[in-house]
Amino acid sequence: MNRLSTFARGGGDEPLRNVNLSSNAALSSWIMAVRPRTLSLSMTPVAVGAALAWAAEGEIHWPAVLAALVGSMFIQLGTNLHNDAVDFERGGDGPDRVGPPRVTASGLLDATMVKRGAAACFAMAALMGFYLVFVGGWPILLLGVLSILSGWAYTGGPLPIAYTPLGELFVVAFFGEGAVCGTYWLCTAGLGPAAIAAGLALGLLAGAVLLVNNYRDTEEDARMGRRTLAIAAGPSLTIGIYAGLMLLPFALLPLIGRALPRGQEMSRPMLKM
I need a surface site. Which of 1, 125, 182, 195 has the fewest CB within 10 A? Predict the structure, then answer.
């Protein structure tokens, strides 16, 4: 009778409510850790590479494009997770952090667990890569291996890329040229000047995102021993570099436009399997 009374008053589902709250908190922590707002940096170049392949060659290999999109997103997620855990282990992300909170430093998730999540993301990217290598051959294999290794080396290893002035160059190479040209290659089995110019343009914009974040975090990064481009260049020069990264992509637009065919009838099929 007492148990029935407890359920009637709603007290019997208290343990279940606690479990749901705990599950929701864990999910929220993982979402915070992977930083989904940054995914546009990995999704946009794949979309641009596919669009250019259609505009220039009349070809889109949809299965490969989708696999490249998923693989690129998982590399981004894995990099974000690894960055979250390793920065904490190196003594970063302290109470003076200006940017969004990090889950490892906040005690929401264990560093080992977050690094395992990063490894799982890189594994998913590699799984997508098996199919992409089948489609695109050894150039895609080389690009995929370098992309995953660079995602890990961004904050891992004896000399993390994020602790040097080369972070923006890394972003230009992999979130610009690599993603755009790699997708274009998967669709057309070749490269063109429009893809190279578009990859550079998107890479410069992605580099600007990293630079402004590093500019925000200069005090904490200097305390950690980082030597980012924002620290090495100083405030005034960093502002000039940022302006250049934001403006140069627009100067590349005429080159991209001239590299695309005009008024030519496309004879190749849109879908390749």
Answer: 1
CATH classification number, 14-259, choose in 1.10.600, 3.40.50, 1.10.10, 1.25.40:
1.10.600
Reduced to 3 states (helix: H, G, I; strand: E, B; else coil), residue 118 is helix
pTM (2 d.p.): 0.83
Rounded Cα distance, 101 and 113, in Å:
17
Structure tokens given for 1: 């009778």
**By the 8 A CB rule, do 122 and 149 touch?**
no
What gap in Å lies between CA 159 and CA 216, rounded to an integer?
22
Residues belonging to the chain: 273
pLDDT digits (tens, 9 = 90+) for 20-45: 546 677 788 888 888 888 898 899 99
Burial (CB < 10 A; 0-12, 13-18, 19+), residue 120, is: middle
